[in-house]
Design goal:
about 40% helix; about 260 residues; six-stranded mixed β-sheet; Rossmann fold; four-stranded antiparallel β-sheet; 10 strands; alpha/beta
Length: about 260
């Protein structure tokens, strides 16, 4: 494993006969907050599902903490928060965590610790059905934190949250990374890029760029993440147009026009 928490080589995912991720290589270092950014449909959720072992893959390898993704030994070592809160609406906050804790073999102290981390201790006895969407999302995060994971994978964890709560969660993410936890956080909100140690920009199931924000800004000559992403998209489109397929398309267009 070395200094890598996640290593992906040649990942290929096909859905309905269409390659969603044609071939992807990626490394997530230990103890960093890595932002996975890109527009809807770029492949973020598919990639995340492959990392946690919930996605059927056509080819390539996905290794987490030195083990194949989805291995039983990773159950407590990797935490996963989906876009939609994974909670039982007819149970209280504490009952949801007790259920997950029983599966993971965690005790009441772990439940209290997780609820404290996400600032929900005061809502412990409330039914999930009485909580706001943001509070439900935090319950899902608390469940993911129960096993004190070494890797935390978060799919759009701040969607629908107010600015104060978003700030507090990002502070929590960085506290976790300083303790050695490796985090992969997906988002389509470009202003969250500044909160990450490193960025992976996806487009069309491929890595468009990978590096610290400062490097991406310098590379594109831009001043904010959204401008950098758009510049990289334009550069990729220009490369595609000038490649063999682009040349063939232009030649074909010219031939058709002359007949």
């Amino acid at each position: 494993m070395g200094n890598s928490a996640i290593e992906i080589a040649g990942l290929r995912v096909v859905r309905g006969g269409v390659p969603v991720i044609p071939s992807l290589d990626l490394t997530v270092p230990v103890g960093q907050v890595v932002g996975l950014l890109g527009p809807s449909g770029s492949g973020k959720t598919t990639l995340i599902r492959a990392i946690v072992g919930a996605q059927i893959v056509e080819g390539g390898t996905v290794t987490v903490l030195g083990l194949p993704a989805g291995s039983a030994a990773l159950r407590r070592r990797i935490g996963y928060v989906t876009q939609s809160p994974s909670v039982y609406g007819d149970l209280t906050v504490t009952e949801n965590l007790r259920y997950a804790a029983a599966i993971l073999g965690m005790d009441a102290a772990a439940i209290r610790h997780a609820l404290t981390d996400v600032d929900l201790l005061g809502h412990a006895g409330q039914s999930i059905g009485t909580l706001s969407g943001g509070e439900r999302a935090r319950v899902s995060l608390a469940i993911a934190l129960l096993g004190r994971p070494d890797v935390l994978v978060l799919d759009e964890p701040t969607v629908g949250l107010d600015p104060v709560l978003r700030r507090d969660l990002w502070e929590l993410f960085h506290r976790l990374s300083r303790s050695g936890v490796s985090l992969l956080v997906s988002s389509h909100v470009m202003d969250e890029a500044a909160r990450c140690d490193r960025l992976v920009l996806l487009r069309g199931g491929a890595v468009l760029a990978d590096g610290p924000l400062a490097d991406l800004l310098a590379r594109t000559g831009t001043t904010d993440p959204e401008e950098a992403f758009l510049a990289l998209v334009d550069q990729a489109a220009a490369r595609d147009a000038s490649g063999p397929a682009g040349v063939a398309a232009r030649d074909g267009a010219g031939t058709g026009a002359g007949t």
